[in-house]
Amino acid sequence: VQLQAFGGGLVQAGGSLRLSCLASTHTFSSYTISWFRQAPGKEREFVAGISWSGGRSYYTDSVKGRFVISRDNAKNTVYLQMNSLNSEDTAVYYCAVKRGLTVARTGSDYDYWGQGTQVTVSS
Predict the structure, then answer these.
(1) Which of 110, 103, 113 is nearest to 54 (CA)?
(2) Which of 7, 12, 31, 59 has the most CB atoms within 10 Å of its CB?
(3) CA 18, CA 9: separation in Å to the nearest integer?
(4) pLDDT confidence of residue 21
(5) What is the C-alpha separation between 106 and 104, in angstroms, rounded?
(6) Closest CA to 120 of 6, 3, 4, 17
(7) Residue 17's closest CA among 25, 9, 29, 5?
(8) Phi-psi category of 94—alpha, beta or left, where left has phi over 0 and alpha has psi -120 to 50?
(9) 120 has pLDDT over 90
(10) Would you give the DSSP letter of residue 32?
C-alpha cells in the first residue's frame, strides 16, 4: 500500500487547512487509518484515527473540537480538516494505515505510512 499525503502549508493562527491522504490499494475499506504528527524535537504523536467504515473516530485531546477526520472509501482517501490552528499544531503530519478494525494510538501498530506533509502555523 502506498500513501500520499498532501494539503499542508503555511497558515496563520486561527486559520484552517485540510489534509488529504490518498491510498493506492484495492482494499482501502478494510484498513483503519490515522493521522500522526511530529514536531521538531518531539516524539511522533497520534492525532486522529477513523475506523474502516468511518463510523468511529478518535482524537487526541489537544485537537478535539478543532480537527475532524473523515474518509471516502470510494476515493481511497482520508481527510483531516483542521480548524482554529495554533502554533502547537506545527508539525509534519503523516497518514498511516493498519489492518483490522481497531484504531490504535501507537505508531508501531501501523503497517504503512505516507511521506508526510508539513503544516506550519504562524502566530
Answers:
(1) 103
(2) 31
(3) 10
(4) 97
(5) 6
(6) 17
(7) 9
(8) beta
(9) yes
(10) E
Strands (E), the chain: 2-6, 9-12, 17-24, 31-38, 45-50, 57-59, 67-72, 77-82, 91-99, 112-113, 117-122
Place of cell 490504535: 104
Residues found in the chain: 123
Q: What are phi and psi of 11, to 5 degrees?
A: -140, 150
Joined together, the cell numbers standing for residue 48 give 486522529
| Rounded Cα–Cα distance for residues 112 and 5 (Å) | 12
Q: Name which of 4, 49, 6 is nearest 23 in CA terms.
A: 4
Query: Each residue of 55-95: pLDDT tens digit?
Result: 899 999 999 999 999 999 999 999 999 999 999 999 999 99
For 40-69, the DSSP string reads TTS--EEEEEE-TTSS-EEE-GGGTTTEEE
Q: What gap in Å lies between CA 26 and CA 79, rounded to an integer?
A: 18
- Among 18-22, 40-44, 49-53, the range scoring the smallest mean pLDDT is 49-53
> Which residues, 6+ apart, have CB-to-CB distance to 41 below 8 Å?
none
